[in-house]
Design a protein that fits this description.
CATH architecture of chain B: Orthogonal Bundle
Low-confidence stretches of chain C: none
CATH class of chain B: Mainly Alpha
Shape of chain C: globular
CATH superfamily of chain B: MetI-like
Oligomer: heterotrimer
Radius of gyration of chain C: 25 Å
Chains: A alpha+beta, B mainly alpha, C mainly alpha
Structural class of chain C: mainly alpha
Order of helices and strands of chain C: HHHHHHHHHHH
CATH class of the largest domain in chain C: Mainly Alpha
CATH architecture of the largest domain in chain C: Orthogonal Bundle
Number of domains of chain B: 1
Low-confidence stretches of chain B: 1-16
Distance between the termini of chain C: 49 Å
Number of domains of chain C: 2
């Protein structure tokens, strides 16, 4: 799929971009660089500003302030049809009156490209639907329409391909399959993909860099593993997977670790993983990192005692426990299913423990529930 | 094809039961249409070939199957036939030019005022169609304020008038049938997913190209329905010609009317009616075929 | 990082940009003005102290509104139009709704023919409908008058009722009826409790449309009403001499009444939607 028109375009740079609709600020002073060739995901709940950001990159909205560059070219006020950017729309927006072939050829014809047929055939082969070129969009299944929408965009070899919740309308199984295919196609054609989604699993599967957005701002940006293992805010900790966040006070510190007192028990945290500015801290630990054991069993690392199992759900690959702690907080524990059926029952007293380096610390002023009450329809 | 399939499945999902019920539902209405639409048309065909009773009173005719009536009628009313189709065509074109942006604005740019604007499009209907036509005659007539103003500004000559002209007839028809054009256009524009227009923009089509390649093709069903709903009544209209025209702007409707009532020449009136209907049906069929929107019917 | 200023454009460019963006709205305002000029003219001249000929503005008066039947024949003509309108609307709405249900909810042989027979009257010019009916009435020695006119009005209203109600039926979610049957409603109850209430707005709209078509019809009526006067006939015949201001009063009232009905309908819909 090498093509002259996909010559080097450079990185996408958003500089201090703000978009307001009346009193409502959808995107608030956003600065962001997306390196050329990357698969970048904007992740966040609905209304967080991610779609508005995408629409500004596409040229479908104009920023209230700030600028957008591709490489050294300023595209801030360029019309959508003047930008080397193409979009795979939510619900695809295929032209219902045109055949599949003409849908895919649309952008090529507008740009006056010569070998339309050849290029369309090639891209239809890439998405494995060459036999459907004479059909109309309504005669295609959801998954097929999705691929045609993708083909219609990538055939233009844009500097940037924008994907607006592209898999939202597909069922779970098809979505998983398309995730893998999209990732493969991105590697194949080597374009920069900017992917907007509210589905954290989708973002983690496909993107090499994720920016988590909330209320018009980027909460945190990094690789999926970075975001998951070292969330910097309660929102990221809760929105990306699940986290246990426990309030505490830093009681002492040495060169590389701090001791935190949580409800009378002591927990160690690596200093580099502590984001708290002062003494007040939220201690974070992912549920699957916690080991659950009977009170008398030997424990190492950080230990919290005095828990009572309040709920057990067996989900196949793991068993999920809800443990009520003496300070009336429920903690989640996921135990991998490598030892047969679970032995603990509701009402059993337990101790929780984990390796100290897994602990992360957030600023004590944060809301424990930020990002967790967001509905995740996926 | 897809349209047909969905129609079949939709009808089949709930009451797929066959039997007498649908026919019972149809019977009274269909009987009515047969008696007061089909029978008169058949009777009209009969009347059209009658000839006057020799030595009889005016209005007495006898069936002689004289097909030459058609040739005579056509020759007698040739200019009116031509005018009817030309005026109707012009009025349709004008109505389309006026209605399309109007429907577009209501469909895409009206926000929360959409419903109010739709009501406003139909609202002029609620005053009598004749009252409005007479109102135009008076506004644009000698006693109105428009003509003296235009004369004072030397835009038109001191003797020139706006009424009693072909222009007045065409614009009168345009005005009267405007909602018939606007509503179907609106309906088809409203159904367009705005994201397809964004997609077109995204795929290197500017505003004009997007309109030409996406918006307009997608609004074709509305264009076809609107032009038919305007053209058909306009071609048969004679009220505008009678009120806003002069003796040189009479249309086929005026001829049929006067043959019936003033000259009491039923066969000629019948032949003219029949030819008008046939001409319109043929035009409509060709038009629907060519625009590829059979599903309208 | 330095702040990026909001780009400001020169005034002339901003004005042309405003026009570019609002062109279609400006056009819409012009379009609506065109639509409403004769309506406002009609309403304004209903207050004209005109005497016999209502052509020139002679001063404001409420006397036309106080005495709408002041002009000879106008109220008799209006009465005939209302009578014909009500009878024709009732009959056409019932007959048309039955057909719409047959087409919209049943598969049967001859559906295409039925659709064609519904479409044809709409595709036939009014002169043809009117003259052919009159020719038939004359052939059967039936004198033109009220009942031939009613018959004609029912005929041309049926098609419009069918089209309107059919569209409403087609837009219904068939799952609603399936849900009703699932919840132990038999066919008859499903129809009465679910289908009919949901189709009702369509039927009401169709009736309103039928009434306005019937009330406003001139051409077909002129052929088949004989010496009976109707409101449009009255306006047509007095157009040459200038129509009396009372006709404007009637036209304006019809306009206002219809607006109130439509507004009330919208309000009811909005309340139901909440």
């Amino acid at each position: 799929m090498a093509d002259a028109s996909s010559s080097s375009h450079g990185d996408l740079k958003l500089t201090r971009v703000t978009k307001s609709f009346g009193d409502f600020t959808a995107v608030d002073d956003l600065t962001l660089t997306i390196p050329e060739g990357s698969f970048f995901a904007l992740l966040g709940p609905s209304g967080c500003g991610k779609t508005t950001t995408l629409r500004m990159i596409a040229g479908l909205e104009e920023p209230t302030a700030g600028s957008i560059h591709i490489g050294t070219t300023d595209i801030t006020t360029k019309k959508p049809y003047q930008r080397p950017v193409n979009t795979v729309f939510q619900n695809y927006a295929l032209f219902p009156h045109l055949s599949i072939f003409e849908n895919v050829a649309f952008g090529l014809r507008r740009r006056g490209v010569k070998d339309v047929k050849e290029q369309v055939d090639k891209v239809l082969k890439l998405v494995e639907l060459p036999h459907l070129s004479e059909r109309k969009p309504t005669q295609l299944s959801g998954g097929q329409q999705q691929r045609i929408a993708l083909a219609r965009a990538i055939v233009n070899r844009p500097a940037l391909l924008l994907l607006d919740e592209p898999l939202g309308a597909l069922d779970l199984k098809l979505r998983r399959q398309m995730q893998i295919e999209l990732k493969w196609i991105q590697t194949e054609v080597g374009l920069t993909f900017v992917h907007v989604t509210h589905d954290q699993e989708e973002a983690m599967t496909m993107a090499d860099t994720i920016a988590v957005m909330n209320e018009g701002r980027i909460e945190q940006m990094g690789s999926p593993a970075e975001l998951y293992e070292s969330p910097r805010t309660a929102f990221v900790a809760n929105f990306l997977g699940q986290s246990n966040l426990i309030r505490g006070e830093v009681s002492s510190s040495d060169a590389d670790q701090s001791i935190v007192e949580v409800h009378g028990q002591k927990i160690a945290i690596v200093k580099a993983r502590n984001r708290a500015a002062g003494k007040s801290i939220l201690v974070g630990i992912r549920p699957e990192k916690i080991r659950i054991s009977l009170p008398n069993d030997p424990c190492t690392g950080n230990v919290l005692t005095g828990g009572i199992v309040s709920d057990v759900s067996f989900v196949g690959v793991s068993t999920q426990y809800v443990v009520e702690m003496p300070w009336k907080q429920d903690l989640m524990v996921f135990e991998q299913n490598d030892g047969g059926t679970p032995t603990l029952r509701p009402g059993d007293p337990v101790s929780l423990s984990w390796n100290a380096p897994f602990t992360f610390g957030l600023d004590g002023s944060e809301d424990v529930n930020a990002g967790s009450e967001v509905d995740d329809p996926a | 094809m897809a349209f047909l399939q969905s129609a079949v499945t939709r009808a089949g999902t709930f009451t797929g039961r066959k039997g007498r019920l649908p026919y019972l539902l149809l019977l009274p209405g269909m009987l009515w249409l047969f008696t007061f639409f089909i029978l008169p048309i058949i009777n009209l065909a009969g009347t059209s070939t009658q000839t006057p009773v020799l030595g009889g009173d005016t209005g007495q005719y006898v069936q002689t199957f004289r097909l030459a009536n058609y040739i005579d009628a056509f020759n007698a009313a040739r200019p009116q036939f031509a005018r009817s189709f030309i005026y109707a065509f012009l009025a349709t074109l004008l109505a389309l030019a006026i209605s399309y942006p109007l429907a577009y604005a209501i469909a895409f740019r009206s926000g929360r005022f959409k419903n109010i604007l739709l009501v406003l499009v139909v609202a002029p209907f609620f005053t009598s169609f004749l009252l409005r036509t007479v109102a135009w005659k008076q506004i644009l007539g000698e006693e109105g304020f428009v003509v003296p103003t235009l004369r004072a500004l030397h835009i038109i000559g001191p003797q020139a008038t706006l009424t009693a002209s072909a222009l007045a007839v065409v614009t009168g028809m345009t005005y009267n049938f405007l909602p018939f054009m606007t509503l179907p256009l609106y309906a088809s524009l409203e159904r367009i997913d705005p994201r397809t227009l964004e997609a077109s923009n995204d795929l290197y089509a500017n505003g004009i190209t997007t309109f030409r390649k996406v918006t307009f093709p997608l609004s074709m069903p509305g264009v076809v329905a609107g032009t038919l709903l305007t053209f058909i009544p306009a071609a048969g209209d004679y009220v505008n010609a009678a009120i806003l025209g002069n003796p040189n702007t009479t249309m086929i409707g005026n001829v049929i009317d006067s043959r019936f009532f003033r000259i009491v020449d039923y066969p000629t009136a019948a032949a003219l009616s029949f030819m008008l209907m046939a001409a319109i049906l043929i035009l409509v069929t060709i038009y629907i075929r060519r625009s590829g929107t059979d599903e309208l019917v | 990082m330095s702040t990026v200023p909001i780009p400001t454009l020169p005034v002339s460019k901003r004005i042309s940009r405003w026009f570019g963006r609002n062109l279609i709205r400006i056009y819409a305002v012009l379009g609506f003005t065109y639509l409403f000029v004769p309506v406002f003219y009609t309403i304004a001249f209903s207050f004209n102290n005109a005497g016999k000929s209502n052509l020139v503005w002679k001063g404001f008066t409420l006397s036309n509104w106080a005495n709408p039947c002041g002009a000879p024949d106008v109220c008799a003509a209006l009465g005939n139009s209302l009578k014909i309108g009500v009878i024709a609307t009732t009959a056409a709405t019932i007959l048309g709704t039955l057909i719409a249900f047959a087409i919209g909810r049943h598969r049967f042989r001859g559906r295409a023919t039925t659709n064609l027979l519904i479409f044809l009257p709409m595709a036939t010019p009014e002169v043809v409908l009117g003259s052919s009916l009159l020719a038939m009435f004359l052939a059967f020695r039936i004198n033109p008058g009220v009942w031939p006119t009613v018959a004609a009005h029912v005929m041309f209203c049926i098609s419009f009722v069918v089209v309107t109600v059919k569209a409403r039926i087609a837009s219904l979610d068939p799952r609603l009826e399936q849900a009703a049957m699932d919840l132990y409603a038999n066919e008859r109850e499903t129809f009465r409790r679910v289908t009919l209430p949901l189709v009702m707005p369509g039927i009401a709209g169709a009736a309103l449309l039928a009434f306005s078509l019937s009330f406003d019809d001139f051409i077909i009526t002129n052929f088949n009403s004989g010496t009976m006067n109707t409101f449009p006939k009255f306006v047509y015949t007095s157009a040459a001499r200038g129509i009396p201001a009372q006709a404007n009063v009637i036209g304006s009232s019809m306009f206002l009444i219809a607006l109130v009905i439509v507004a009330a309908g919208q309000l009811v819909n909005r309340k139901k939607a909440r």
